[in-house]
User: Fold these one by one.
Assistant:
Number 1:
Amino acid sequence: MKGLKKIALVTAIAAAPFAANADLKAMDDSMMGDITGQAGVTIELETQVSIGSFVYTDEGSFTVNGIEIGGSGLAGGAGTNLLDDLYIDIDVEADGDAFISVHSTSGAPIDWGMTANSMSLVAADGSQSTTLVSNLSGHGNLAQLDIRVDTATDQLQLDVAFNVVDMDFDVEFLGVGIRDMAIMGGTFFEQAGNPLTDNFAIADVDVYKGNGLGASTATDVLRIDINDITMDMNIGAIEIGGTSIGSVALDNLTISNSKLAVYGH
């Protein structure tokens, strides 16, 4: 009898969590906020990333060597080598949308920098290669990065405001050098007095699964819709054979109503 009582007691204890769970319901972001006074997750970040090589292989390969990503100091800017002074807010809204927003802790734009030693095309057996770009170095600032996964449309929606303060690189196989390239807002050359439109290029892009364009019969392709990209661009010097042939400026460059369909063949 004592043995039976012990078995009954153990069975009751084991069954208790299942009985309790019968009345439990999943808590969404807003319900959690009602209880804790908070909703969503915030992640503060400081980082510096080094990648020895990135290789995309089809038959031959496209290779990027010596990648460094961090603060503007990596590329000669005024900041440190760390990508820092930022935090990321992650929320799941009542309609199920996921919303990710990157902010500056200090309120100033987030400075970034990157360098890459070379970008090359390489034959499958490694016997031949062509260096497309070398000595890439650039830095700038990020003012806005909002990412939304929209459950109503199944789209990834990107809103970005950024600039490139200074970028240099060599197009080695053509003997061309790009010096002091800057990408700013659409009114940068006019200096209208609005810091956002003066100093930061903007991009509004949707990414989703869809069909090909026009008469294409392709389905389930990667669709990229560019709703708006607006910027001013300035290249301080274009060098050919090591000698500058002059500068180039693009004022009020706007790309809109542009659609891409990407798929394998």
Number 2:
Amino acid sequence: MWRIGLTLVGVILAWRIGALGVARLYDAELATADRDVAGTAQQALDWHGTQPDALYQLGLSRLRRDPDTARALLAEAYRLNPTRAQPLLALSALALTDGQPASAEHWVDAAAKLAPVKASVQEEVAAYWATQGRLDRAFVHWTRAIEAGSPRTRTLFSGFRELLATPIGLAAFRDLARDPPTWWESFFIETAQGKTPLELVQALYDMRRAPSAVPLSTPERMAYIERLLREKAFEAAYLAWINSLVPAQRQQSGFLYNGTFEVPFTGFGFDWHVLRHDRASIARAPTEGGRGQALRITFRFTRSRFEHFYQPLYLAPGGTYRISGRYRSDKLYTESGLRWALNCRDPDSQTLGESPRILGSEEWTTFSFEVEVPEECAYQELRLASVDTLRRDEAIDGSLWFDDLAIVRIPAMSPLERARTAARRSILSEEAQPD
């Protein structure tokens, strides 16, 4: 038998009050009582026998033990108040129990048309069609319920994820993805951010990558890539991000993306990330002496460590790379300077190499450094940060410009760079030793 859900049985009833004061009192009790609802309904009817809500409640209480009486009570409740869909839903449940699917469908369709924007009714209609194996029709009404502002949307999403793990549910979602409903994006983001198995998240994403009436949205891509990174599926995350780029963005791709700063930052995936800083502004800007756009960081006399600009990388483990770029400053004041550092992010966080200290130069100045990526390092980042890693109140003021940043693979690290790397690691090792 089709279950009449909590949205129907447990609803707070809005009673239609007659002129009799005693019936009004019983009505108030019906609206709040958790015990003997049938008895309370009967008392209300004893005082005023044409209350449709009391008839409906009494009919519900007799669905199983006296279906003929229940049917009469529900029919009378609907006759007295033909604007309410709940009696029709109960009648459809009775018809289904009696083996009359055509009649059940008639009552369900009538209820759906009577309350097209009532979330609780649409949820019940959807539940009926789901139990009949018609998920295509069920999703039509679940969508109406969600669009009507159902307070059970999160619960519905949880149920959708359970459906997704079944063959019939997977097929239904594949059909939905061709013309996704309004709730799809929220559902996908919640699913990707939660604990749903990765293979199901990937299945949903692949459905949306297929030809569709609605293009895959940026928030969907972001949620998917973030989930892949969380699962340490770095290659899949990088490929998903690359495939999300438009032609103008793809022209900027390489070991380092958008190192000339010609396209806007998106802040997700393997693009540049800008973290909020109260006393520093980070933006692209045209500059004299440069070509097109450049990166401009303006400090407003801040006393805090800077590490607010970085890009995740997917460099091949075991490879050797040269990082280079140009910079100039405008009235820059810094106590310890800044530098670019290439860090390993997984499995362990460690600095693989860093640029010479940047203290300021009013003329464009080139810099470069080389790194070897360990075989076990599968995920990296390039980050601009204050040189002093321990001091948190370093003063910085003025502007700093960067342009033409690039990463290229080289056959081997030069002897000079190898010596610099060994010296830096020796210093770090000494600093890590206890006094």
Number 3:
Amino acid sequence: MGNLIVLIASVLLPPLGVALNKGIGGTFLVNLVLTLLFFIPGVLHAIYVNFL
């Protein structure tokens, strides 16, 4: 159930998905910048960080 919540958060709000799984740090900031500049790379990065 926890992975499902992280997956949904990673698709809808990628920085939230990263923060739920990895916490607030460098990975979160990279994802935040990717999401603010280009949404799709932010989603791909969140899925990569959380599930691969």
